[in-house]
Fold this sequence. Notes:
CATH superfamily of the largest domain: nmb1532 protein domain like
CATH architecture of the largest domain: Up-down Bundle
Largest sheet: 5 strands, antiparallel
Number of helices: 22
Number of strands: 9
Low-confidence stretches: 321-326
Number of domains: 4
CATH topology of the largest domain: Four Helix Bundle (Hemerythrin (Met), subunit A)
Structural class: alpha+beta
Strand content: 5-15%
Mean pLDDT: 85
Helix content: 40-55%
Distance between the termini: 88 Å
Strand order of the largest sheet: 6-5-9-8-7
Amino acid sequence: MATTLNASTKILELAKEFPFLLETLVEISPKLKRLQNPILQKTIGRRATLTDVSKLSKVPLNRLFVLLSESISENANETVIIDKEAKDQDGWQEELDRRQRKLKDLVLGLHAGEELEGLQSDFKEILVDVSATEVADMEQSLITSGELTAKQVTALCDLHVQVFKESLDVQQTPQATPGHPIHTYMNENKEAQRLIDLLKQNPDDDSTIEELKKILTHYTRLQNQLFPLLEKADISGPSTVMWAKQDEIREMIKNLNKSNLDELLSAIEEMIYKEENILFPMSLENLSEYDWVKVRVGEEEIGFAWITPGTDWKPITPIDIHQVDQEPESPKINLNTGNLTLKEIDLLLRHLPLDISFVGVDEEVKYYSATDDRIFPRSPAVIGRSVITCHPSNSYDKVKKILTYFKEGKKDKAVFWIKMNERLLLISYFAVRDDNGEFIGTLEASQDVTDIKSLEGERRLQGW
């Protein structure tokens, strides 16, 4: 008996005969994880052909034929015939586009002030089986197309979730192995919910309130570890919206008193729901195993809220495959004055009494100094990230203006100072130009100047 593959072969019918193919598809591309979604399998997923799979994964159809036939031959010992003459056939793209347009119309109706109940009735057809990725794609599309700004989407994102809640409630809870970043995020959310429940019973428990404030570490890790990888996968809308909501929670904590405690608890609960029903499922569908390794690397640098990650998750990475036994000898690099080895340069930058970051002319982060006591958290995931998206959305315009003025030669520096935890922080941006005056990037320096500001008199070397 032989199995025939062609452009119009329906992938879920094929996977029903060969269940192992669902795992094969994920190995081909993490974007194909959505085909494992029970909701999608019951709806538009039934129409998906190998043509659709090729477009979704961006793997050429002929290459897809080879990968699937190899999997079937190895795992089922069955002969596979590849029919390359069959015409390409989209089974679901038209339907997917139609659903996206209806989802966008629904949300645009909300922003136009239409009643929630009426919209839910009008769009009941798609609300019963919408997936987390469809919601995320819809928000991304609205922002990318300019139909709504990120600020407008943020303003009504709680209503968006309320609209889709019935469908999101029945999707599978994200699963991950202890040590995987998603498993860690989920465990932190469980602890946050436990603290919220305690405070609902006893709102005057100051020690529990202090414990709950550690949720900010959870948000900082999401912003610096997960969000950059989503942006590199061309998914910035949902993370931009969630960052803005997290900053609202940050402000609530900063100005916390007995009158707004209930508001804070509700906001954190709503964020837990958004993470576990939209952000995490969408991230698992779109990021590869190696992406998750990048998310995991550097988590300790930022820290964890309440828990210690597990150690069961042991992915194989290119670093594991290509082990290097010892560091090569570092050559000296001739500088403008003197010469240093790479090791000396790295240690020198890490021992400066301030944090520095360098942003290239392309506005991407090229470097940051990994000092032991950084003022603002950073992690390796930020390298290659647009500096604009390293800031809350309400700062985008100002950051862009500074960079534009530097490029145009209108300004060479921008200096700010803020109070944080009773410390005075000086934040400076400098235009970096070569000897010919050509702009090559931006240097950011952050320094705690509290003690410097309080200096009086003098202290000479002889007095040390």
